[in-house]
């Protein structure tokens, strides 16, 4: 263990000259590309497991990034869809979430709803007896049975910000509004971005850095970066997930409801819908709105079909409360990484080459992401200690 | 039963005036849109089950249509991937194929290859002892076990043509090079197409027909036509399937090989590859080539990934024998209907409204398509007899 380090430096915009130093030797041991929740969590975990390493966290947007999957993630920690082998990692993540977020994480009931009875299921009417507003969302004759799970909700954007700030307090450097392109050999090209008065994003200045270790934590973009810039082909994939708004009022204690893959998450006094991801989107797919009985919508067709298929079981979806939008821009959506190309895969990390790691969150990042980031930090700590 | 009818009329190009008659009453009882194998088979089956019905078969291209899924279908009848419940329908289809195609259908061995032993599997080296060229395609240490199935190969384009011609001999009318747009109430707009001397396809003349019954048999396009023109939403979907060429020589008696979803079909002294379809393509997806280590290919990325994943087991795929192409146009490909959105679904038909049926082939049309077309013909025969 080294002695406590002064807080890291933060370069937020191009007005602050980026001076990582002029030494020919790299001034950082680790460059983390992407300050979403996975990259930020890794930065923080590295300050714990490998405090001797000097880390620079680089983010193309701000903190939190408004464009990435982190800001639109549901923020639901739950055991509902996990195999037993991942429960320990989930419990560890929950403890960590509590430490980082304090009162910003809230316990909330989580009900999966079904048409048929089975062991562990109770009558939906009984479980929702104290929540008449929730019961009114659904048809209890079609969704007569439910299983209750433990769940906790939080804001993933807040998590990314909290973790990054904690890391900075412990010495991590942060470079915002900067696009990073990895190259073989631990080289990274940095483009510091600025916005012109015609709202174009342009490169203000370019830097070339080198570090013994680069971690790509840019979410759904990371596999493409690994392939295009490092020449490492992976089987990871991505899917474009939209999270439409359902304006039906929700109360403070309303449970999360899960019906045939669709999650209704109480949020801001209404609901955010998190539709199922059935499979990857093909290479080259451009997200686009669908049509409902001839009327253009912002919701993609596949999601629209899923919602239409659930309108009998969830009559609230058939009301004007469901915001369909008119064009893609009307519906919040983001590219979500699918580790290994699978929608049910846990977060993962892997070594790309001698100088680079990949860190991927994906659909289960809310429940398991912090654990995976910690695992990678431990691995990096072991390897760098061995190398010294 | 009515007495034998004279052969049907054929309008092949716009030089032949289309004169279905000027009576205000419809002159045809059934309009079949699409003369792929499903539409053609239905036309023929109707001459058997409902010889009293006057049928017009309408095709946007020629016979066979060079653009549709029929011409690129593998033409493999096999029980290898069928549940027991569909075996009878498959057997019926095989008998029918034999009747229609005679010597144009050939028995051929079909081997599914596996890494592990299991009941019914034999050592690959034993099964391929008499086929050293087939054995040389694969690594028998990785694909050590195989199951042999009965299979028969034929050309689906020939089947469509043969069935349509047989139907015409029995009185069905045929209208080629004509785009048909269905409307509610049994109305259909026909655009007779012609090609200008600058190779543009233009509408030469337009007709409006009406018939008590319209059958959409336009393959992957049919669900979109049902939705856009008849307002009937279905859950059918489609996928773009490419069938790349493997130039490794195949002998006359070479077996069909099936490895982890990929089928290698001996054809024209080489192989045609039929890649697995994992799931539907999303609405709005535009087929496009992928990249292999930075080099653009005509093969879509998802298929390329599957082939790369099989290169150890099938070393032939790692040789220049595999035609990757440079752009999409280099690789034969077509949109394939996925009944119910499922890649493993059997062919199906369904009523769309009082005047329209949908008839879909899809991935199992080679093995089950004729049976499904016959089922729809029987249903139409029953309903029209009852209605008379």
Could you explain the architecture of this structure?
Two copies of one chain form a homodimer. With 388 residues, chain A is α/β, with parallel strands linked by helices. The first copy, chain A, folds into two domains: 188 residues, FAD/NAD(P)-binding domain; 132 residues, D-Amino Acid Oxidase, subunit A, domain 2 (D-Amino Acid Oxidase, Chain A, domain 2), CATH 3.30.9. Chain A is 24% helix and 28% strand. Chain A contains nine helices and 22 strands. In chain A, strands 4, 5, 6, 7, 14, 15, 16 and 17 form an eight-stranded mixed beta sheet that branches. Chain A has a seven-stranded mixed beta sheet with strand order 1-8-3-2-12-22-21, sandwiched between helices. In chain A, a hairpin with a 3-residue loop joins strand 9 and strand 10. In chain A, helix 1 runs parallel beside helix 6, helix 1 packs across helix 9 and helix 3 crosses helix 9. The radius of gyration of chain A is 22 Å and the shape is globular. At the A-B interface, helix 8 of A face helix 8 of B. Chains A, B: Pfam families: DAO (PF01266). Chains A, B: Its cofactor is FAD.
Subunit organisation of the chains: homodimer
Q: How is the biggest beta sheet of chain A arranged? A: 8 strands, mixed
The assigned structural class of chain A equals alpha/beta
Count the E strands of chain A: 22
Low-confidence stretches of chain A: none
Determine the number of helices of chain A (DSSP H or I, runs of at least 4 residues).
9
Rg of chain A is: 22 Å
Give helix % range of chain A. 10-25%
Distance linking N and C termini of chain A = 14 Å
User: Any idea how many domains of chain A?
Assistant: 2
Query: Percent of residues of chain A in beta strands?
Result: 25-35%
Please report the first level of CATH classification, the CATH class of the largest domain in chain A.
Answer: Alpha Beta
CATH topology of the largest domain in chain A: FAD/NAD(P)-binding domain
CATH architecture classification of the largest domain in chain A? 3-Layer(bba) Sandwich
Shape of chain A: globular
CATH superfamily of the largest domain in chain A: FAD/NAD(P)-binding domain
Q: Determine the most extensive contact between two protein chains.
A: A-B, 23 and 23 residues
Which whole number gives the mean pLDDT of chain A?
A: 93
């Amino acid at each position: 263990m080294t002695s406590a380090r002064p807080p890291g430096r933060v370069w937020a915009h191009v007005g602050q000259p980026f001076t990582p130093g002029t030494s020919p030797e790299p001034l950082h041991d680790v460059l983390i590309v992407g300050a979403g929740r996975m990259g930020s969590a890794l930065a923080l975990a590295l300050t714990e497991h490998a405090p001797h390493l000097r880390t620079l966290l680089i983010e193309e947007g701000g903190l939190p990034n408004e464009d990435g999957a982190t800001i639109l993630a549901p923020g639901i920690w739950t055991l509902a869809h996990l195999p037993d082998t991942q429960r320990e990692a989930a419990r560890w993540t929950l403890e960590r979430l509590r430490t980082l977020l304090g009162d910003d994480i809230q316990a909330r009931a989580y009900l999966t709803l079904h048409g048929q009875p089975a062991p562990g299921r109770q009558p939906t009417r009984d479980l929702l007896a104290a929540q008449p507003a929730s019961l009114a969302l659904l048809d209890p004759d079609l969704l007569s049975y439910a299983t209750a799970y433990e769940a906790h909700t939080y804001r993933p954007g807040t998590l990314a910000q909290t973790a990054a700030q904690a890391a900075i307090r412990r010495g991590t450097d942060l470079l915002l509004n900067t696009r990073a392109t990895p190259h073989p050999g631990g080289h990274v090209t940095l483009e510091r971005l600025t916005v012109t008065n015609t709202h174009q994003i342009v490169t203000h200045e370019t830097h070339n850095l080198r570090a013994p270790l680069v971690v790509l934590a840019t979410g759904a973009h990371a596999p493409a970066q690994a392939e295009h810039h490092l020449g490492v082909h992976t089987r990871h994939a991505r899917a474009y997930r939209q999270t439409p708004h359902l304006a039906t009022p929700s109360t403070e204690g309303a449970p999360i409801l899960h019906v045939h893959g669709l999650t209704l998450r109480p949020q801001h006094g209404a609901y955010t819908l998190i539709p199922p991801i059935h499979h990857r989107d093909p290479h080259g797919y451009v997200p686009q709105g669908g049509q409902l009985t001839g009327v253009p919508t912002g919701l993609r067709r596949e999601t629209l079909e899923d919602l239409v298929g659930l309108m009998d079981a969830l009559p609230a979806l058939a009301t004007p409360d469901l915001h369909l939008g008119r064009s893609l821009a009307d519906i919040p959506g983001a590219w979500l990484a699918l580790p290994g190309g699978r929608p049910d895969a846990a977060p993962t990390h892997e070594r790309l080459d001698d100088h680079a790691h990949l860190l991927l969150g994906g659909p289960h990042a809310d429940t398991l992401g912090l654990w995976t980031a910690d695992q990678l930090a431990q691995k990096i700590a072991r390897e760098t200690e061995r190398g010294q």
